[in-house]
Amino acid sequence: MESLISLIISLAFAIFLYIDAPKHNKSRWLWAILGFIFGPIALGIYFIKTGRKVAGWIITILAILFYVVLIIVIVAAFALFANGFS
């Protein structure tokens, strides 16, 4: 179920970038592929490149913070499972 939600969100980013990129003289296929693969980071960079800097920086920073916290949680969980909970 979670992977289906991720796929839908990635497709939404890709579709938005595919439709919006030609309005700013950007390659629609390039930004759609980047949006599908990298998700919110690509969306934030696209906003920065197209002049919507505040929204772009907010999205990019929040996405990076989310990924950093996710990595820390995974490493902590792995350390707990490897060493035991006691």
Describe this protein's structure.
- 83% of the residues lie in helices and 0% in strands.
- It is an all-alpha fold and 86 residues long.
- It has one domain.
- Helix 1 (2-20) runs antiparallel to helix 2, helix 2 packs antiparallel against helix 3 and helix 3 (40-49) packs antiparallel against helix 4 (53-83).
- The radius of gyration is 16 Å and the shape is elongated.
- The mean pLDDT is 92.
Any idea how many domains? 1
User: Fraction of residues in helices?
Assistant: over 70%
Average pLDDT taken over every residue: 92
In percent, how much strand structure appears in the residues? under 5%
- Gross morphology is elongated
Number of helices: 4
SSE string, helices as H and strands as E: HHHH
Number of DSSP-assigned strands: 0
Describe the main β-sheet briefly.
Answer: none
- Given as residue ranges, the uncertain stretches (5+ residues, pLDDT < 50) are none
Distance between the termini: 33 Å
Gyration radius, rounded: 16 Å
Which structural class should the secondary elements be placed in? mainly alpha
List keywords for this structure.
86 residues, mainly alpha
Describe the structure in brief.
The chain is mainly α. The protein is built from four helices and no strands.
Give the topology.
Elements: H1 2-20, H2 28-38, H3 40-49, H4 53-83
Helix pairs in contact: 1-2, 2-3, 3-4
